[in-house]
Amino acid sequence: MSAKITRINPDELHETPGYHHITVVEAGRTAYLAGQCPLDLHGSLVGRGSLDRQIDQVAANALTALAAVGAQPQHVVRSVIYVCGDDSDALGAAWRRLTSSVIGPAFTTASTLLGVAQLGFGGQLIEVDLTVALPD
């Protein structure tokens, strides 16, 4: 049986810029992806100082991780996006670039965008954490 995914925006809650307030998953298996970082195949940071280049690498890495479990961006049921800094313009720009990337459909679900002081690798500006309802 395939997982049934329902995304809901109650009328009583504010409108969103593309994500849904609630995601309900019925049946199926779930995969929890480790935070996807802007690292290349050799573990080297990509795009030092460039949020756009790092977002592109994170999106490519996430697409690879999803494919490894037989999933696609539309199977994501929860995302958390961590961006270094507290500039709301940079956070908004990160959101827009991610939602227009190869994994854009992943962010139509329950999603959280956070500005943080630091991430795990020196020079890292973004990390994306995804939860996936696996298709059969």
Break the fold down into its secondary structure elements and pairings:
Blueprint: E1 4-8, E2 22-26, E3 29-32, H1 51-68, E4 76-84, H2 88-99, E5 110-116, E6 126-134
Parallel strand pairs: 4-5
Antiparallel strand pairs: 1-2, 3-6, 4-6
Which terms would index this structure?
136 residues, 22% helix, two-stranded antiparallel sheet
Structural class: alpha+beta
- Strand-and-helix sequence, N→C? EEEHEHEE
Rg over CA atoms, rounded to whole Å, is 15 Å
Principal-axes shape call: globular
Would you write up a description of this structure?
This protein has 136 residues and is an alpha+beta fold. Helix content is 22%, strand content 29%. The strands form two sheets. A four-stranded mixed β-sheet has the order 3-6-4-5, covered by helices on one side. The longest helix is centred in the middle third of the chain and has 18 residues, at 51-68. 26% of the residues are buried. The mean pLDDT is 94.
Brief write-up:
The protein is of the alpha+beta class and 136 residues long. 22% of the residues lie in helices and 29% in strands. α2 (88-99) links the parallel β4 (76-84) and β5.
